[in-house]
Amino acid sequence: MWRVVSALAAALWLAAGGAAQAQPVRIDKGRLDAALGQMVASGRAAGVSALIWQDGRERYFGAVGAADREAQRPMRRDTLVQIWSMTKPVTGVALMQLWEQGRFRLDDPVSAYLPEFGQVRVDAGLDSSGRPLLKAPARPITIRDLLRHTAGLSYGMRGEQPDAEYRRLDPLALSNDLPEMGRRLAEVPLHFDPGQEWSYSASVDVQALLVEKLAGVPFETYVRTQILEPLRMRDTAWTQPQAALPRLAATYLVGPDGALTRQPEAEMLARNFAPHRLTMGGAGLVSSLDDYMRFARMLLNGGELDGARVLKASTIRLVASDQLDPAVTKRHFLPSKGNVGFGFDFAVRVGPPLSATENRGAAGEFFWDGAASTLFWVDPANRLTAVFFVQKMPFDGTLHRDFREAVYGAGYLGPPGD
Fold first, then answer.
1. If we measure between CA atoms, which residue out of 150, 100, 102, 149 comes closest to residue 317?
2. How far is CA 399 from CA 30, 40, 48, 63, 242, in A?
3. What is the pLDDT of residue 193?
């Protein structure tokens, strides 16, 4: 029934030329319960949970299905999940704290603080014998480039020559510490001249290295003492105690037949429950629903929560503003996120949804997600923030679309005046 209603709403939206009437967002518990339930009943997820705050209070909590099917553990409010790239906004907040303190300027060359990035080269194709050609960059990588993914760094994702070097050098191996990560990554050719394109990359790991260098303490220590502890995010860490293991959700992989199979746990245990040298800026945190909501509420509340000031309100406005020049037309997979630009470690919605199939949302929202299909967003126009947890790989954006549609309604285009 929910699918039929959604389809009818989308059809009406299109018939009206995308001019559906915008209404204030009112959280519909029944609609949300049905959406989460359908995700599990359809076999698209083993377990899901969601938490929504609006106007200063909790408006919705729901959990459906299993955190661990094999152990018959249900998805609960205190379930721990690997949030993968939802680590990135935490790292960005840490770096912007140091910016507020005057430790650097946004347009400073990265090499002023990390000299290894002063010798980077740019991929220039292949010569007649098939050997890689390299050239000097048109300008240095700046810290602003790191924050908005315009540095040209690799993440091993584009299928180009720099990705082959990235895989060979393996900068994000857990056996590397952050300085070694930086040395290896600086040897990988850039995909393009800095500032020319948007391309998802390991730049947030370089941000973590910058935090460590500028603050003079290990990156993990800085984040714990300056962000996690002030916000009372007691469940959130790169390395969890063994006692937390029974609360951790299993990760499920989509097989060739579409069925979900449990991911082997050896890598997860090495990454999250054993000592290792690398603390990534771009991934690695494990968190709970309420913990990450405290981070999201701080952002919604202009950088402060329950008396803990993490960033200035003006800094939140800066990081949540589109930082991409309109001339940056090559944007890798960013358009798949909808009608968005990019701020500092957040995608930023720049206008209402452009089609009935695009994720619902309001202009001005900022958000990011994780490889295991987790999601959060901050919607200042509706004084709302939402956190969605699931552990499914590869990334499944249809879960996000269905959850957002359940939050906003199928025809939602934003508040009046957008």
1. 100
2. 17, 10, 10, 14, 31
3. 98
Burial (0-12, 13-18, 19+ Cβ within 10 Å), 138: exposed
**Strand, helix or coil for residue 88:** helix
Average pLDDT over residues 193-212: 98
Position 12 scores a pLDDT of: 42
Max Cα distance, the chain (Å): 64
Report which of 236, 214, 260 is spatially closest to residue 110, judged by C-alpha positions.
Answer: 214
Write the DSSP symbol of residue 132.
E
Encode pLDDT of 236-280 as tens digits: 999 999 999 999 999 999 999 999 999 998 988 999 999 999 999
CA dist 344 and 340 (Å) reads 13
135-152 pLDDT per residue, tens? 999 999 999 999 999 999
CB count within 10 Å of CB 393 equals 18
Distance CA(160)–CA(84), nearest Å, equals: 24
Beta carbons within 8 Å of 180's beta carbon, 6+ residues apart = 171, 277
Domains along the chain?
2-87+232-408 (3.40.710.10), 96-219 (3.40.710.10)
Q: What percent of the chain is modeled with pLDDT above 70?
A: 94
**CB–CB of 60/368 below 8 Å?**
no
Q: What angle, rounded to 10 degrees, do the helices at 178-187 and 161-169 form?
A: 150
